[in-house]
Write a structure and sequence with these properties.
The protein is mostly helical. The protein has a single domain, classed as Up-down Bundle (Four Helix Bundle (Hemerythrin (Met), subunit A)). The chain has five helices and no strands. The longest helix has about 45 residues. The relative contact order is 0.14.
């Protein structure tokens, strides 16, 4: 079992409330919010959709494109387009916080939106996981029911 990427989101929430090193904490909060979701989604896509990352910086763009292609191929996965859009927004804000000398806009709002966006991604995937696991359990029950009557 690998690292629990959701811990980065918990760290982002902690950093957002930090009263020391305020700007550094806020910048780091946005970065951790992005990486929590990027890594979680990447691993989910690997396990469930056959995503094959190259372990390069291009994986960030490649993952978002891959999610959109899944949604185009099967309407049942249309929410992956929304998740890719959330990742776009988070990546943009993460780049801004990691590389820009000046943050334009309401910094508190940027941090709040990044954390909320990350939470939405986790919620969407966890509900997908729940539905998928329930489907598998239902499938096993049906199989058992029919095999016991034969």
């Amino acid at each position: 079992m690998g690292y629990e990427w959701k811990e980065f989101l918990e760290l982002a929430c902690f950093l957002a409330e930090n009263k020391e090193y305020i700007e550094a904490s806020k910048r780091s909060a946005v970065s951790r919010a992005y990486y929590s979701t990027f890594c979680y989604v990447r691993n989910y896509a690997k396990e469930n959709f056959g995503f094959n990352p190259k372990n390069t910086a291009e994986d960030h763009r490649y993952l978002r494109e891959y999610l959109r292609s899944i949604a185009r191929k099967n309407k049942k996965y249309k929410k992956w387009t929304e998740i890719a859009t959330y990742l776009d927004k988070l990546r943009e804000e993460r780049n801004n916080c990691d590389y820009s000398d000046t943050i334009i806009g309401d910094f508190d709002e940027i941090v709040r939106e990044a954390i909320d966006c990350a939470k939405k991604i986790f919620k969407e995937i966890e509900s997908e996981n729940w539905n998928f696991n329930n489907f598998l359990q239902f499938k096993k029950l049906i199989k058992r029911a029919f095999s016991s009557t034969a």
